[in-house]
Design brief:
InterPro entries: CoA-trans_III_biosynth/detox, CoA-Trfase_fam_III, CoA-Trfase_III_dom_1_sf. The protein has 407 residues and is an alpha/beta fold. It contains 19 helices and 10 strands. Strands 8-7-6-9-10 form a 5-stranded parallel beta sheet, sandwiched between helices. It has a 3-stranded antiparallel beta sheet with strand order 3-4-5, sandwiched between helices. It is globular and about 65 Å long. 31% of the residues are buried.
């Protein structure tokens, strides 16, 4: 007798197996049997109809395969197994919000601020009125919704829809939402798209999944795997791991430069640091705003440096760091770092000149192909564009899109 009861564990294994083709065969053959998934409950922990627990656990399984392969190459045979606990993997997605400083969490706004670097240069987070410039609103077409996004400086977004940049003293959440909604009720989606494009903002309409797949970008990006690896050049020799280790971590001795902000890109650097890499986060606190509390978790295990890559003197300092780097992580919009002269094309050339290549890792919101690939974006923007917000809203009995975990 068979059971039709849904199993998170079995679904995780199915997703994991479907992703194996993304890795080289030599990463899989010897080690796939050593990956073990486990959980102690079959409850859907997150109130979301999408398979977040299963997907992140499967991705951690891929990470484990790479870790096992590198362990074998660096330390010899490895007869151990890697266990992926589904609940622990899910908590990884919440680590930014679960972090604390001396017992103070993100919700302890006043108490925790004294421990944080003041990187909210434009009051995009600290001012409740300006913060709500990043939210999902109904438009003039009552059945269509648009997520405006003021990013890290709300002024442009606010002024483009006809609202003042600042309203001192306005902190009541409901009043703020009403002000925005009254204004957004005056615009159609097409009008907002035109303003959004003209002002280079990160807004997007909340599309249903089938509608997204019918767009040119959706049709293109749906054929692309979650990640791709390509060879930039083949003239430089393979570099062996350093012989002398300060620890038994597989990436000990690997030097990483992280050009990222917010959460997604810095998370890549954080993972590499956990495996022993020396990670230097390169930012410019005086000119590049960030979300202060996110850095508590995202900067874990890293070094940081302030360099403005538009300043000639700072560029010289950055190029000194580049000489010894093995990996560069790019978390900006497609082409942004390339314009500064440090994208994959330039680094390929520099790698050939120094006789040692670079690994260049890049992530963004809309991917690297398709007509929207150059648009700025955030997690909420991806959720709205791809249909996730509509799936979430309908699952909650609402005939409207809702960004997961923000309601």
């Amino acid at each position: 007798m068979t059971s039709n009861k849904y199993s998170q564990l079995e679904e995780t294994k199915i997703i994991f197996n479907s992703l194996l083709s993304l890795l080289p065969e030599e990463f899989i053959t010897e080690n796939v049997s050593k990956i073990k998934f486990e959980n102690y409950s079959n409850n859907l922990i997150v109130p979301c109809p999408l398979k977040q627990t299963e997907t992140i656990s499967a991705l951690k399984g891929l990470e484990a395969l790479v870790a096992l392969k590198l362990t074998q190459e660096r330390f010899g045979s490895n007869d151990g197994t890697c266990k992926i606990d589904l609940e622990h993997a899910l908590l990884f997605l919440f680590s930014t919000y679960c972090s604390s400083v001396d017992g103070f969490f993100k919700t302890d706004k006043k108490e925790v601020l004294k421990y944080l670097k003041p990187t909210d240069l434009n009051q995009a987070q600290s001012d409740p009125y300006r913060r709500m410039s990043a939210n999902l609103y109904r438009t003039k077409e009552k059945d269509r919704f648009y997520h405006i996004h003021g990013s890290l400086d709300a002024t442009t977004c606010l002024e483009m829809i006809g609202l003042p940049a600042f309203v001192p003293g306005l902190e009541d959440y409901d009043k703020i939402v009403d002000i925005y909604q009254e204004k957004l009720d005056q615009f159609t989606v097409d009008e907002l798209e035109e303003l959004n494009t003209k002002n280079k903002q990160a807004g997007v309409e909340a599309l249903k999944p089938d509608v997204f797949l019918q767009t040119k970008h959706g049709a293109t990006i749906s054929k692309v795997p979650p990640f791709e690896v390509e060879t930039l050049e083949t003239s430089t020799p393979k570099i062996e791991f350093a012989a002398t280790l300060s620890s038994r971590k597989i990436l000990d001795g690997v030097k990483v430069l992280e050009l990222c902000r917010i959460i997604a890109g810095p998370t890549i650097g954080k993972i590499l640091a956990e495996y022993g890499a020396t990670v230097i986060k390169v930012t410019s606190d005086d000119t590049l705003p960030d979300v202060p509390f996110f850095q508590v978790d995202a900067n874990m295990g890293k070094h940081t440096t302030n360099l403005n890559l538009k300043d000639p003197n700072d560029r010289l300092e950055f190029e000194k760091l580049l000489k010894d780097a093995d990996v560069v992580i790019d978390g900006y919009r497609k082409g942004a770092i390339e314009k500064l002269g440090y994208g994959p094309t330039k680094l390929t050339q520099l790698g050939i000149e120094r006789g040692k290549g670079y690994i260049y890792g890049a992530e963004n919101c809309f991917g690297f192909v398709g007509e929207w690939s150059g648009r700025p974006g955030w997690q909420q923007i991806a959720d709205c564009a791809s249909g996730v917000a509509w799936v979430q809203g309908l699952s909650m009995g609402k005939n409207e899109p809702m960004v997961p975990l923000s309601q």
